[in-house]
């Protein structure tokens, strides 16, 4: 409509009018979101849905009747505010209408609310095609608006028929700006945020100038609808594809690459003066941006705490800001840059303002994508192309240098592999040890999972003595020796026999716990404790120790009360333990993998798998089949 009302103006004024409309339509989401959430929680939602639909209908119908630019812009803003109310009320009502459990219900809500966008874009393209064929130039846009009003009427009727929409009671939505200023917490989340802002900027830049760009290429409203449909389908398909594509490939690398690919698609669609190519490139851009979005969401969601919506709220906020920057900046830039003709000997190349503005947006997206890739890369030093090629074949790539260094050791290994998990309280070692064991078993290995203290019969009695809060006055040396006694029994009766039969032993805690807790924590000489433990274990050292690092207050908060004797030690004790673990690990980086335990569980598991992969015996040792009574079915991954 705005394009139709400004058709007598020059191209730059039209671009700005269309872009301005998009800004007005995005603004409510930034400014009024919390208000909408609040209303959805307090007001009768059925009523809210009905009122929003009826008002939207009225406003949309008046636009072609009035036929003025100012009212059209105001209507865009009003309809967008009402849609915000509608979406929040619908989102708040869905959990009660869907039988799924909580986290799935939230995902269903997103799908239900945004899923029909591609269908809407196709409907628009069809309506525009009909209007182009049947109506005069002046009234072409009217048909689309009347159809929209009709859709609102259908929606109102549907809401009126659904009886069990609950009245009130859902949590209010977080304010996007507030979420943004609170920040994401970790550096990795910041990198993810940068990637998502860039992907969103690229997609919104296309939407912002699509009307003008298709006009330049002779496409009109139907062409515009096709471009929007391409974008919407691409986005939806990309969101679906993200978690399913190149499964063995690092998700963080994939995220960076998707943004870079979106930038390249944007550059091509800016430069090529052909509507068909532009439609296809827009769809590709959508696929990459959508894949980036779902990859990022999966990367920041903690499977342990799916109810924590802060990371996803942060991503939504940065996406919104990226889109807003694009719709505010790109149309005026297109207007300001204007058209230029390049003479190329026998032909000429028309370089329009919208091409130039999209090219600039592509460069900004590309730079952000590369920065995000660098910041997020969790496979530093591993070349990208072979890594990608291996992932296409469903494998994880191991660089030849590492493979050569590892080769003699795993292949000729005569004993099993020993992996220890260490860390302070609540670091999640038990979970990660379990995940690693499951993964190893899946690959056909004979795995023994165990823990300290208390993995043997005697050990259980020692554990009770050591951790019972009624044990008072136990001297530090006695405590050290009791842990060492437990460990000696553990090695002799569990670890050694398993290693001798070629199994992989995964232990939750080992000697380093004594060095950190009894040595650094209790402030006893660490060398003495190391000597006692070397004697107790017969000098058995893990092939790999995974250290999960977490600040004591965060770790202790994760634990259910009541605390045991060691957990209830004062805060500075736990600080010393943490520093002790770090010092041990940093002194021997070849044998340790240090991980930030606040990162999402799935990412940690993946990094641990990479590292374990390098020290595994290959092939699976003979005899494993007898021990596990399973086939070593999947050797590669
Ligand atoms: P654990 O059963 O692993 O509990 P969690 O990992 O859930 O904290 O460990 C029990 C406690 O024993 C733990 O607080 C750390 C302490 N500990 C030592 O102080 N020294 C040691 O050598 C070991 C193995 C554990």
Mean pLDDT: 85
Please report which band the strand proportion falls in: under 5%, 5-15%, 15-25%, 25-35%, 35-45% or over 45%.
5-15%
Q: What is the CA–CA distance across the termini?
A: 54 Å
The biggest sheet, with number of strands, parallel, antiparallel or mixed sense and barrel status, is:
5 strands, parallel
Q: What is the domain total for the residues?
A: 3
Description:
The protein is elongated. Helices cover 68% and strands 6% of the residues. It has 637 residues and is mainly alpha-helical. Bound molecules: thymidine-5'-diphosphate (TYD).
Layout of helices and strands:
Layout: H1 2-5, H2 11-42, H3 45-66, H4 69-97, H5 102-114, H6 117-134, H7 140-161, H8 176-182, H9 187-216, H10 220-241, H11 251-271, H12 275-300, H13 310-337, E1 340-344, E2 347-351, H14 353-376, H15 384-392, H16 400-406, H17 408-411, E3 417-423, H18 429-442, E4 447-451, H19 457-467, H20 476-500, E5 504-508, H21 511-521, H22 526-537, E6 544-549, H23 552-558, H24 571-587, E7 592-596, H25 601-615, H26 624-628
Parallel strand pairs: 3-5, 3-6, 4-5, 6-7
Antiparallel strand pairs: 1-2
Feature tags:
single chain; 637 residues; mainly alpha; Growth Hormone, Chain: A; Rossmann fold; 3 domains; five-stranded parallel sheet; binds thymidine-5'-diphosphate
């Amino acid at each position: 409509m705005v394009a139709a009302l400004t058709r007598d103006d020059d191209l730059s004024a039209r671009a700005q009018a269309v872009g301005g409309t998009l800004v007005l339509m995005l603004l409510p989401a930034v400014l009024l979101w919390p208000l909408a959430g609040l209303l959805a929680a307090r007001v009768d939602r059925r009523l809210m849905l009905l009122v929003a639909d009826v008002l939207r209908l009225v406003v949309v119908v008046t636009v072609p009747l009035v036929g003025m630019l100012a009212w059209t812009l105001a209507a865009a803003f009003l309809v967008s505010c009402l849609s915000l109310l509608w979406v929040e009320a619908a989102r708040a009502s869905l959990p009660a209408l869907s039988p799924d459990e909580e986290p799935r219900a939230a995902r269903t809500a997103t799908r239900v609310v945004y899923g029909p966008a591609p269908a809407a874009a196709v409907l628009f393209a069809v309506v525009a095609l009909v209007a182009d064929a049947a109506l005069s130039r002046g009234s072409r846009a009217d048909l689309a608006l009347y159809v929209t009003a009709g859709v609102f009427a259908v929606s109102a009727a549907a809401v009126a028929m659904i009886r069990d929409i609950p009245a009130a009671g859902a949590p209010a939505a977080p304010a996007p700006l507030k979420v943004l200023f609170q920040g994401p917490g970790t550096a990795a989340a910041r990198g993810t945020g940068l990637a998502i802002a860039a992907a969103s900027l690229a997609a919104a830049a296309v939407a912002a100038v699509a009307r003008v760009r298709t006009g330049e290429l002779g496409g009109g409203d139907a062409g515009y609808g096709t471009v929007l449909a391409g974008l919407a389908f691409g986005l939806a398909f990309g969101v679906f594809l993200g978690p399913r594509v190149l499964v063995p490939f690092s998700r963080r690398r994939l995220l960076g690459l998707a943004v870079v690919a979106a930038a390249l698609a944007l550059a091509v669609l800016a430069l090529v003066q052909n509507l068909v190519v532009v439609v296809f490139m827009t769809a590709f851009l959508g696929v990459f941006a959508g894949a980036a979005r779902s990859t990022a969401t999966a990367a920041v969601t903690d499977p342990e705490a799916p109810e924590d919506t802060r990371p996803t709220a942060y991503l939504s906020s940065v996406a919104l800001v990226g889109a807003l920057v694009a719709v505010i900046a790109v149309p005026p830039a297109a207007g300001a840059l204007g058209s230029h003709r390049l003479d190329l000997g026998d032909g000429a190349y028309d370089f329009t303002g919208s091409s130039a503005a999209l090219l600039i947006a592509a460069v900004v997206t590309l730079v952000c994508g590369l920065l995000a890739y660098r910041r997020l890369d969790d496979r530093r030093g591993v070349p990208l192309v072979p890594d990608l090629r291996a992932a296409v074949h469903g494998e994880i790539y191991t660089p030849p240098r590492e493979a050569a260094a590892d080769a003699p050791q795993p292949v000729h290994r005569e004993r099993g592999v020993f992996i220890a998990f260490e860390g302070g309280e609540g670091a999640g070692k038990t979970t990660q040890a379990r995940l690693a064991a499951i993964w190893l078993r899946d690959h056909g290995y004979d795995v023994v999972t165990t823990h300290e203290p208390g993995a043997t019969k005697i050990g259980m009695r020692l554990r009770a003595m050591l951790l019972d809060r009624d044990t008072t006055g136990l001297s530090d040396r006695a405590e050290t020796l009791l842990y060492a006694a437990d460990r000696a029994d553990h090695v002799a009766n569990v670890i050694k026999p398993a290693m001798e039969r070629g199994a992989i032993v995964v232990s939750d805690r080992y000697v380093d716990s004594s060095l950190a807790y009894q040595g650094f924590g209790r402030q006893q000489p660490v060398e003495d404790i190391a000597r006692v433990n070397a004697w107790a274990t017969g000098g058995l050292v893990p092939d790999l120790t995974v250290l999960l690092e977490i600040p004591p207050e965060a770790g202790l908060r994760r634990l259910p009360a009541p605390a045991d004797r060691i957990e209830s030690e004062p805060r500075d004790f736990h600080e010393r333990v943490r520093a002790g673990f770090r010092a041990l690990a940093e002194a021997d980086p070849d044998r340790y993998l240090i991980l930030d335990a606040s990162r999402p569980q799935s990412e940690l598991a993946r990094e641990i798998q990479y590292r374990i992969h390098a020290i595994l015996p290959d092939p699976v040792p003979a005899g494993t089949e007898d021990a596990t009574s399973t086939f070593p079915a999947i050797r590669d991954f």
